[in-house]
Design brief:
Blueprint: E1 3-7, H1 14-28, E2 34-38, H2 42-47, E3 55-58, E4 61-62, E5 80-82, E6 85-87, H3 92-102
Parallel strand pairs: 1-2
Antiparallel strand pairs: 1-3, 3-4, 5-6
Helix pairs in contact: 1-3
């Protein structure tokens, strides 16, 4: 799984987005690297499908799904809506849902090799 957090220099919200992302990954037992990607120009924003800072992409798909790109690519701050409130970073619930769409979550989630695993006998 490839996880990227895109941001621009001076963004006041990307650190909280990163903290929320890392906390959800730890809670769900997801062992993946988060790559921080500094977006430096409107041209780069367009090339990377940057919807504003901070943007989290999982395997190249925006946290809010592929349809989020329709809201507009921009080189500015991003706002997330949750339970009637606006925030400069995505809430953990949004991150958890996006990660769940990309892979099963939790310690009991099956892995690619679950069919071949044989429990050790006592």
């Amino acid at each position: 799984m490839k996880i990227e957090l895109l941001y621009f220099a001076g963004c006041p919200s990307y650190q909280q987005a990163l903290q929320n992302l890392k906390e959800v990954m730890a809670e769900e037992g997801i062992d993946a690297t988060v790559e921080l990607v500094k977006v430096s120009s409107p041209e780069e924003a367009k090339a990377r499908h940057f919807l504003g800072s901070p943007t989290i992409q999982i395997d190249g798909v925006d946290l809010e799904g592929p349809e989020a790109v329709g809201s507009g690519i921009g080189f500015g701050c991003r706002v997330y809506a949750h339970n009637g409130h606006l925030s400069g970073w995505p809430p953990k619930e949004h991150i958890r849902a996006a990660l769940a769409r990309r892979q099963p979550l939790g310690p009991s989630a099956p892995t690619e090799h679950a069919c071949c695993h044989t429990p050790a006998s006592d």
